[in-house]
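Exercise 7b. Backbone tokens:
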């Protein structure tokens, strides 16, 4: 048993094989707390081969919904509810411009699927830049807002059918860590991309300075709704396993501040604003030197000869 493990009458999924590299050996790594509301403690196991972290115990998919914030998941809203939300949306404007620059450096324009699009901020921004966009979103209210933003129906992942070769670019902004079966979904993306098409995945990085700084208080653990915890080796293994070619990476500078601020709140630091900005800056400087940001954008490419 994990120290402090919460056991209740909900079913648990046992992960026997690493979805990134296929290894079957996991070792106990660390623990993290659900600071969003339940205050339950979960263990995190680590794949001995590629370093992928797996949340344990992992609630059954049907039970996971109760751990998601109700009515205050800021990325699924289109208006601020608090001072922190107002800061978030102000930074989001700058972050959207940053994301556009990152995308445009690889793919100039075309057909873009934003998988896990939230309220449609990124998809809508790229639509305004001339892209043909579509979205997939599991939250019904967020999907409704996104549909209004991009002018077409945003489907649930349960009904989304990947059409072969239909996309030039597929993006997942902090989504992969939520997916029950990353390997199966990447195979769907491979099918949906044209040969030479690109996949962009942004996830928290367990090799970051702030993960080491905050330990179990690191906000990007976000257990149990983050089922997986990635780093460079695990992502490259997943790409190789699903037929993709690795195509580079880039830290996300704004995320370092956001994660540091939330982590300081988890610590109950009364000076969380000051400390969060300070450690966010230090994480950003570290990422410039090492490439290991608090969150990292990972690029993968479907080979030109891919079918």
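Sequence design result:
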């Amino acid at each position: 048993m994990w120290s402090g493990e919460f056991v209740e009458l909900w079913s648990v999924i046992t992960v026997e094989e690493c979805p990134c590299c296929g290894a079957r050996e996991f070792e106990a790594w660390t623990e993290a707390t659900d600071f969003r509301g339940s205050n339950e403690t979960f263990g995190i196991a680590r794949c001995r081969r590629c370093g992928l972290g797996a949340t344990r115990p992992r609630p059954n998919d049907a039970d996971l919904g109760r751990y998601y914030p109700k009515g205050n998941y800021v990325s699924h809203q289109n208006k601020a509810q608090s001072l922190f939300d107002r800061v978030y949306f102000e930074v989001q404007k700058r972050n959207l411009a940053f994301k556009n620059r990152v995308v445009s450096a690889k793919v100039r324009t075309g057909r873009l699927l934003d998988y896990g699009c939230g309220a449609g901020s990124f998809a809508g921004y790229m639509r305004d830049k001339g892209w043909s966009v579509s979205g997939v979103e599991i939250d019904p209210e967020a999907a409704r807002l996104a549909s209004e933003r991009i002018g077409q129906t945003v489907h649930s992942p349960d009904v989304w059918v990947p059409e072969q070769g239909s996309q030039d670019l597929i993006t997942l902004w902090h989504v992969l860590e939520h997916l029950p079966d990353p390997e199966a979904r990447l195979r769907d993306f491979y099918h949906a991309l044209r040969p030479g098409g690109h996949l962009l995945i942004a996830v928290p990085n367990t090799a970051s300075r702030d993960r080491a700084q905050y330990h179990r208080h690191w906000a990007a653990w976000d257990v149990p709704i983050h089922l997986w915890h990635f780093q460079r080796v695990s992502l490259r293994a997943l790409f190789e396993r699903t037929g993709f070619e690795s195509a580079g990476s880039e830290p996300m500078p704004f995320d370092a501040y956001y994660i540091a601020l939330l982590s300081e709140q988890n610590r109950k630091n009364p000076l969380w604003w000051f400390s969060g900005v300070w450690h966010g800056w230090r994480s950003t400087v570290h990422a410039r030197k090492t490439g290991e940001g608090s969150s990292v954008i990972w690029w993968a490419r479907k080979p030109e000869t891919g079918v």
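Instructor comment: Confidence is low (pLDDT under 50) at residues 1-9. The chain is about 35% helix and 20% strand.
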